[in-house]
Amino acid sequence: MLRGRCGCNAVAYEVADEFVAAYNCHCSNCRATTGAAFLPWGEIEREKLTVTQGVERLRLLGDAEAIHEVRCGECWSLLYWTARGGEYVRVPYGTLVDEPALKPTAHMFVGSKASWYQIVDDLPQHDEYPWS
Ligand SMILES: [Zn+2]
Ligand SMILES: [Zn+2]
After folding, report:
1. What are the residue boundaries of the structural domains of the chain, listed by start?
2. Residue 103 and residue 105: Cα distance in Å, rounded?
3. Do residues 79 and 13 touch, judged by C-beta distance below 8 A?
4. Rounded to whole angstroms, how far apart are CA atoms 11 and 71?
5. Residues 59, 7, 2: CA angle, nearest 5 degrees
6. What is the pLDDT of residues 16-51, one digit of tens each?
7. What fold characterizes domain 2-112?
8. How far is the CA of 50 from the centre of ligand 2 (A)?
9. Phi and psi (nearest 5°) for 46?
10. Which ligand is nearest to the CA of 51?
11. Under DSSP, is residue 22 helix (H, G, I), strand (E, B) or coil?
12. Which of 19-23, 82-86, 121-125 has the lowest mean pLDDT?
């Protein structure tokens, strides 16, 4: 199990170290929501993530039964959002306390990356989605 938390420590979660995909997303929405150059995330089956502390602090934006994102209601850290119709969630790797076995495998939305940020690793770069 990997531990994770929000920025103010009100919320903690555990997630299996079984991510099935991981990317660094450079799209403008990810940059704006994190305030960072890109958002590294990992995808995993929804039932493999459990909020262990601060469940009552969670704020859900969107449709609980479909597409939504979950943030800490105190500090508004983004904790996870749904993918593939809700069967999977995507977890910002920055919220992990522990190191996941699956590291980001590529950069996505490099076509809209911040001009002031230079990618210096050798991972594949995709202008938009890697799978399109
Ligand atoms: Zn918080
Ligand atoms: Zn993005």
Report:
1. 2-112
2. 6
3. yes
4. 9
5. 90
6. 999 999 999 999 999 999 999 999 999 999 999 999
7. 2.170.150
8. 23
9. -60, -40
10. 1
11. strand
12. 82-86
The structure's pTM equals 0.94
Whole-angstrom distance, CA of residue 101 vs CA of residue 97? 13
Strand partners, 108: 25
Q: How far is the CA of 115 from the centre of ligand 1 (A)?
A: 30
**What are the tokens at 110?**
């490099």
Tokens 């262990």 locate to: 52
- Whose structure tokens read 């150059």? 37
- Provide the mean pLDDT of the chain: 96
Cα-to-chain-centroid distance, residue 33: 11
CA 28 to ligand 2 centroid distance, Å: 7
The residue with tokens 């190191």 is 99
Identify the DSSP state of 96: B
Ligand 2: distance of its center to the CA of 112 in Å?
10
Residues with CB under 5 A from ligand 2 (ion): 25, 27, 30
DSSP string, 63-82: -TTSSEEEEETTT--EEEEE
Confidence of residue 105 (pLDDT cuts 50, 70, 90): very high
